[in-house]
Design brief:
118 residues, alpha+beta, 3 helices, 6 strands, 35% helix
């Protein structure tokens, strides 16, 4: 895609491209009939959450930073890393299910406990 060519952090292009790729798939699902289930904490999860999570993780993986995601098991190795990706692959799943249009993809990068992009 290569949409951003400015002098941003090198991770910015990767994060934007991950969000755009996941967004394309999320919107494909949004336009269709889909179902959802409940996680152990009674929060809803649907195919869009899972697909978006997979796309984003695969896109961010090449940099080697640990990833903390709402839809994946927490790998505590992140606690020993200087940089960590924090993602919510579909923030607003309830609104996605209700088709209100009020949902988003969230990707952030934290360095030494401080957010540096999102």
């Amino acid at each position: 895609m290569g949409l951003l060519k400015a002098n941003f952090l090198p991770e910015m292009n990767l994060a934007v491209e991950a969000a755009l790729s996941a967004g394309e798939q999320i919107m494909r699902i949004y336009q269709s009939q889909f179902s959802h289930t409940l996680k152990d904490n009674q929060e809803p999860v649907c195919e869009a959450d899972i697909i978006s999570n997979k796309i984003i993780i695969e896109a961010l993986k090449p940099l080697g930073y640990p990833i903390l995601s709402e839809e994946s098991a927490d790998d505590l190795i992140r606690l020993k890393s200087k940089k960590v990706w924090i993602i919510d692959p579909l923030d607003g799943t309830n609104d996605f299910i209700k088709k209100t249009g009020e949902f988003t993809i969230m990707i952030g990068l934290v360095e030494a406990g401080r957010p540096i992009l999102g």
